Batch of 2 targets.
Target 1
Amino acid sequence: MTDTPYPSLTSDDEQARRLCALAIAFSNAKSPISSDEVHAAHYQDLSDDSFRRKFSRDRIKLVECGLVIRQVGITERDALWQADEHSFADGSTLSADDALMLDVLCTQLVADPSFAYRNELRLALAKIDHAFGTLTAARLDPAQHSHGPLQVMLACMEQGHLASITYVDARGNTTERTVAPYGHFGLRGNLYFVCAQAGKTGVDSQSLRTFRIDRVAKARQEKGRFAIPEDFCVDDHMLLPFQLGLTTCTAQLMPGPSADADMLAELDRRADVLADGARSVGVSDVVAAARWAIAADMKPIAPAELADAWQHILQEASVAQAVPQPKDYEPLSQRTMPGQRGRKGGSDTMRELMVLVSSLGTEGATLTPASVAARLGVSVERATLLINLILTACTDTDYQLPLALADDNGVVLSRSQGVTGRPIRLTTAEAQALVAALDELGFAPEDPLRVDVLEAFAPTSLSEADVTAHIEAALTQDQNETLEACSRAISAGAALTFSYQAMGQAHPAPRRVAPQAIRHVDEFWYLDTFDYGRRAQRTFRIDRMADVHIARVLEDEPVPDAPTQRQERMVGITFSGHTMLDLLEWPRLEVLGTRGKAIVTQLPFYGGMWLPRHLAACGSLATTSDDELASLARGYGKSIGDLP
């Protein structure tokens, strides 16, 4: 763990962290876990329908890792779930020396481009030889070692010690503080600690502040102690991107006629609604708030400095022109960019985490960025991210791994407390890769090493295909019912009501729409509609819809003509740095590479004003190579800013 900023977390990383938490919980549960318990611990913000669907999909993802969660009973209220014991490996028949030898022998194939199963073999070997370090708990007393700010803050939070920190805010001002770290969370690729202020009279549990860890220049543990209040919940302090830091003013934002519903819902979690419909919300970064408001189609009423910043950004957007995308950028295949926003491969992230958790099976088991990077064949930055995801999994549950900080920026299982990692058997694909590698290396079928490793780790009675098909059958039934309702509503010219769990939205929101067309893109079904609440065209992903009902169209709800079929079109956007990537969400954005500090990307454009607003919010911090997108952003900047 280093003091440098963490790589930006993608939706894949967030999903992998949740799956990691589920795996730890079900691997250690002594009795079946009810749906209510799973819902409360891992899906707090979802409705019952949304939880059921997401938990089903997560179980499919866990099957991809080799872990099967089965329904083993049902109560009067809900279902009971338990990990299939056949998911877990029996390493007793394979010695540590044999595992190490196999790892060394097969490593050459992992690095051989001509070997077709390189990635699967990489993960299979990490499962089999799961000793990532030799440090013991006795060497990890925080009082005897010098740690960076992150390590000190984590140790103080775990042990209930006050921390003295030197903090440098966004303006460069340096202050000395004594704080009680209550919890931490990640946002847009940075790690934040929620702390209570401490003074001569003790800890003020009402004076909570949020500190970005990479701005903590120094930290040391103090003798003073504290206890985290029982009613403290770190989720209450997960702020909007422009609220991180000392509050400098209170803004009044008025939603426009086409205000982004998801961003408005996100704002309403932190804002007060005034009599005229404006939202009153605290602001730490005025420029960031102005950019966020533009993307959300909201107009700042006060204060004047926010309105001025908003106007200045729109002025920049109003002269935007299409700029050819750089062709001499450095592709990501040649250079791994820590903050990349493109998809890194959700399955690999998830499986890498499962491998690392499996290695934490005994007290003293250690993970360091260097050892993880070497064993998994990833960069040290990537290894650091994976360890951080494990650190922050299972927070506030009964199954949190008792990890302490180790030398070399690593972590160690310091005391078991009954919660450990358990080695998981190979998936079918991983077993295939291992058999192919053993064949390539000339191991005969009767070779003792081959027999022992397959007996210990190869899949046994579980059938991934059968398990996945069973789960998908329930999901397909849910989706088919939604598709059927949408189809009938379109045919009848009826309205449709449902609750929708948008990406980045804490709770599902009710929708009432006129459905117009159904389409299939990249393995997902989408419903094109006219949203009566927003009075605008809107597209919804069908698997995020729940409680779907057909309703009659009211007199004041005229059904617009169906739009022409929209085709996916990729547009290029080049960002001057990470500012806008960290501030706003950019779904389905793919990072192509870098040119100096510039980040070259592309993403689909279906029409509409969502992407032009986001581009306008960037002002001079981003350019597009697409004439239509530039024209729409330019027009939006002029119209909304009342510019000539």
Target 2
Amino acid sequence: MTRTTDPAGSGQHPRARTRPQSRPLGAQLSHMLKDRGVTHVFGIPGVHNQEMYRGIEEAGLTHVLARHEQGAGFMADGYARATGKPGVCYVITGPGLCNIMTPMGQGYSDSVSMLVLSSCLDETAAKQGQLHQMKDQEIAAGTVCDWSHTAQTAEAAYQLVDRALTEFQTDRPRPKHIQVPIAQLEASADPAPAKTSATPSPLQGEAAAWGQLADRLFKARKPLFIFGGGIAASQRDQMRPDQRADWLEAFARTGAASFVTYAGRGVIPADDALHFGAFLARPESADIIGQADLVVAVGTTLSEVDLWRDHLGHRSGLVRIDIDAEVLSDLQRADILIHADAAGLIHAFPAKPHQTEWMAAEVAQAKARWRAQTDAERPGIVPLCDALKSAAPADTMYYSDMTQFAYVAKEVTPMDRPGHWHHPYGFGTLGYALPAAIGGAIARPNLPTICIIGDYGFQYTMAELATAVELQLPLPIILWDNGKLKEIEDSMVRAQIAPNAVTQQNPNFPKLADAFGAHAAAPQTIERFKEAIQTALKADRPTIIHTTPQITA
């Protein structure tokens, strides 16, 4: 028998030195995520998912400790919306997964890239009474996300992670859930396969479809575009400033008027003379849309929360451009369907300016009229929105909650860049803004982030204020305190229902901020409100800016 020599003199067989380092699968998953470009993980450790935490520091991931899994999920959501990269969460079996299902549902409705990794029990059918036991947590999670699967092997876990990360880039981004049995997380596993160098190409759409749209635009006398969150995200994540300038110049050549959904604000500059803004939910917008002889909806589902009516209002042809095929076949009944990334729209813009019949004066009058309507419906908030916009730097990213302040701001606050105002649009959950803003602030260090939240919604997730203090985030938290669920009260009154259960006893919010170790301000005038925002953006920790309807000019 011939003995294999060791030329290096290490005493090891040559092949042994090249063997992949074996670790528990839970640790290997952290290393895999780091290799795929993930830098932050949000979550809470527990005895069931502790193996996921074994490799976090070794892999070089930054873990953000939330106070509740719902907070962790909203932080991941805010991080993903700010960066265009997936927000990743580690949660435990049973209640941990249940707690994060609300953020998963919000992410599903708002097209957010969120990857939730959870533990699960090894056996549930033949063994009852276990800690954190659920009947079927895979199915439960699957009701609020794109897909939910169990990885019974290391190879399956790696494949599912890569599948999720690829789909975030190629499909409509929506949360995915992968659960791994505890025994598998603890079991030794080889590392994940190396990251592929291949980059998914964007969905381009057929040249013939773009040509057909270009021809329709050339012939249209009153073309109108509706831009949604899909193109806002595309512009934010894929376009350099010079490319966006070229895109806007090319769009101007169409001579088209435009609306944006709330999520689409910033796609078209607010001062564009033919831009109607984010007033789609105004009933009169249907009449404006009905005047157009061509309507092009780009990157938007035209959902109930965009329109608050069943029909868009178009009487002419409708073109839909979207990466989600389901959107293309909805009840709006478009006659040209382009299955493509919204960025490809530039292929249909004319090479020379196109004269249309839209009148800038009519657009300005409509916007002024709708702004006045908004102010009349919820008095006193429009001046605060104006003050906020003037006080905040141009590159501020906003996170708002289900509160009247935000309902007004979404309509009247102009945005000069896309993807910088985030809100729980579809699912509409309370308590979103604070943890989401924390995720956004983590994603954009040294850049301004502002949270807007109501007195009631704040109490859903106020424990996450501790996380913001712990991280020393200079986060202004504009807390709109009208002492009640005012939007619900108004709805009850309109429905001729005696207002019930809409008034609550609030804590002393400035003292609460002090208890958490945060700063607090209680401005009594709009000028002091602006000063409080500017001071909070430079602070060494978050600041609750307690704002009430009694604030004066």
